[in-house]
Design goal:
This protein is α/β, with parallel strands linked by helices. The chain has eight helices and eight strands; from the N terminus they run E-E-H-E-E-E-H-H-E-H-E-H-H-H-E-H. It has a six-stranded mixed beta sheet with strand order 2-5-4-3-6-7, sandwiched between helices.
């Protein structure tokens, strides 16, 4: 019986093997290509959805959705909405309820897609709501996938430029993996429900409250050394100068005691 956890430690995720989509990735750049892709996707029993938006690093502003990725078990289509907009075939896909459509935090994605064009969404399965029924509390895609499959989903491309003229291969693989992962999670959660699973409750970390009257002692501020007034420094210099002057004068007087041409008897 498979064991899953109510919470999953994010520090364990980097050590896990990486999960990658191994199917075919098709980039959609025209309405005619989009029509064919939608026809194929609506014939599948399960499809996974996700979106990508170019990050905006200014508060209060947000770009439109640039990419809609939709995946079956073995093919993922990347609809470049910043090139083709929201043609009727994509509205048909998003409004359809004939097959199982799965997303994670999909309500937010739908709201962003509706900023581009108004439409009435079809029936979607929200993975976060589904996972809650299993007692799982960590609901991000990365933590949920690590919990269910013991593999990590990389987030290295999340803040890349999704409006670039040509998407890089790492961007394509990242986008396809996210949509495909929704399909895999849905299938596995259905299987666990039918075959059973063991849920391990991970305790919440204890929060130690400070004792009453206990407060951090503030360190006393260091006293700055007092500087002597400038007047005193001047007097000090003047005194030193006078001492040198007097000393020189006494040397001169000693020399004056010896008369010229007078021999000095140095004998003991």
């Amino acid at each position: 019986m498979k064991k899953i956890y109510s919470k999953f430690d994010k520090l364990c995720i980097p050590k896990l093997p990486q999960a990658l989509f191994k199917g075919r990735i098709e980039t959609i750049l025209s309405e005619s290509e989009a029509e064919k892709a939608v026809d194929y996707l609506l014939r599948q029993d399960i499809i996974g959805f996700d979106t990508e938006t170019k990050p905006m690093f200014k508060a209060g502003r947000q770009n439109d959705v640039a990419l809609l990725q939709v995946s079956s078990r073995d093919i993922c289509f990347l609809f470049r909405l910043n090139h083709i907009g929201m043609p009727a075939c994509i509205i048909r896909l998003l409004s359809d309820s004939s097959n199982v459509k799965v997303g994670l935090s999909w309500h937010d994605d739908l709201r962003m897609l509706q900023r581009r064009t108004e439409f009435v969404p079809g029936k979607f399965v929200e993975l976060q709501e589904m996972a809650c029924d299993y007692g799982i509390k960590d609901l991000s895609l990365q933590k949920l996938y690590a919990n269910i499959f013991g593999e990590k989903i990389s987030k290295s491309q999340r803040l890349s430029n999704w409006e670039a003229d040509i998407l890089s291969e790492p961007q394509k693989l990242y986008a396809a993996t996210d949509a495909w992962a929704c399909v895999m999670l849905y299938q596995e959660l259905i299987r666990l429900k039918e075959e059973g699973y063991e849920l391990e409750i991970v305790p919440e970390p204890e929060v130690v409250a400070p004792k009453e009257g206990e407060s951090k002692k503030k360190k006393p501020a260091k006293e700055k050394p007092k500087k002597e007034p400038k007047a005193k420094e001047k007097n000090k210099k003047s005194s030193s100068w006078k001492h040198r002057k007097v000393k020189k004068k006494s040397t001169e007087n000693k020399d004056k005691d010896i008369k010229p041409n007078e021999q000095v008897d140095n004998t003991p």
